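Appendix B. One record, verbatim.
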Amino acid sequence: MNTPSIPQDRSEDRPKDRPENRPEDQSAERPGRTQTKNPNISGHRARMRDKALGKSATSLTELELLEMLLYPSNPRGDTKPVAKRLMHRFQTLAGVLRASPAKLQEVEQVGPAAIVAIKVTEAAALHLSHSRIKNHPILNNWMHVQDYCIKLLAHEPVEHFLILCLDNQNRLIGEETVSIGTINQTAVYPREVVNAALKHHARSVILVHNHPSGESKPSRADIAVTNEIEKALTVMGITLHDHLIITDTNCVSFKSLGHL
């Protein structure tokens, strides 16, 4: 008679629940962050949400806005220290939003998820600014035009030259980048500006270019090429309303300086 064998406990042969075999918690962007939800942080976030809902988000400071827009990048952790470091580095919320991914990554504990949250917010702000002037008589909304151009070009590390194309009621119907250059210059040819204006069936245009150096005054070359472009546009029956220079936070008008 065969004695039935007793099943042996093979638990020691089973794979150990080693850290490398566990699913990675994607909520943290740096090793060593707290993985469990901190009740103090949960309470703080609840108070922040109540403030945004009760008093409206406009009651939030720039630091608080930045702290909250970083929430998705670190659902369990405290985003205020990172927000403080970003504000210290870039001075303003606008500076943070306009900063390049490479510059943002230089800040401690700013990883891909935080950079995505920041750049998506910047893109949303740009779309909002554009919606304020698209298909509207922009000469009656000059502050919105300047705000849009600053958001569009202020953060660019090299010079961009573009035109805003308007219809016969001065409504924005198109925009086009004509040239991209270096940190202190870009080559612009009047025929390219005219061709872009004709492509969009523009009746008038506004020229825009940025100065990454921060110098707000137009150079002699800026003034000369603007005059050449104005002459070429006039031949085609197209009006040049203005030429704007964008620096970090400023917008300078050729017309206001007497150059047009």
